[in-house]
Amino acid sequence: MNYRAVETVDEYVARLETGADWRAEIESLANEVDADAGWFSALGAVQDAELWFYDQDECEYYPIEFDEPLEVASCIGNISLLDGERFAHTHAVLSDPDGTTYAGHLNEATVWAGEVHLRVFEEPLEREYDETTELDLWL
Ligand code: ZN
């Protein structure tokens, strides 16, 4: 296990812009407040979404696409540096009009409305390619 202590230096709340991309909005927030590491939670609604599922046998992401309005019942993620850019690793639980949920790694989604709470950590977090999982994991 790879672990370290982190110190929260700032906390922000933000409203995501209607029509913008959900994850890009969180990355914009991280860029505006110079957050090289952080943890966030969010909720709201999206107009469409693309979730990814990671197949551990094939070491490949498979997209699950939704072209309909969905609630973001829960969204959690973190900010770290990937190839020198701030990356918002984002997971979400989305729900439809019946309350049925779909969940996974959120690649993209068009914001209807969104509210985010971001805690910014002092020490940066960086990702690097991991041979075993074929994922970009924390150093
Ligand atoms: Zn993920």
From TrEMBL:
Q: Name one Pfam family in it.
A: PCC
Keywords of this entry: DNA-binding
List, in alphabetical order, the Gene Ontology terms for molecular function in this entry: DNA binding
Question: Is the keyword Transit peptide in the record?
Answer: no
- Is rRNA-binding among the key words of this record? no
Domain PPC residue range list: 6-139
* InterPro entries documented for this protein: DNA_bp_PD1, PPC_dom
**Which PANTHER family does the UniProt record give?**
DNA-BINDING PROTEIN (PTHR34988:SF1), PROTEIN, PUTATIVE-RELATED (PTHR34988)
- Record protein name field: DNA-binding protein
The record lists the organism as Natronococcus pandeyae
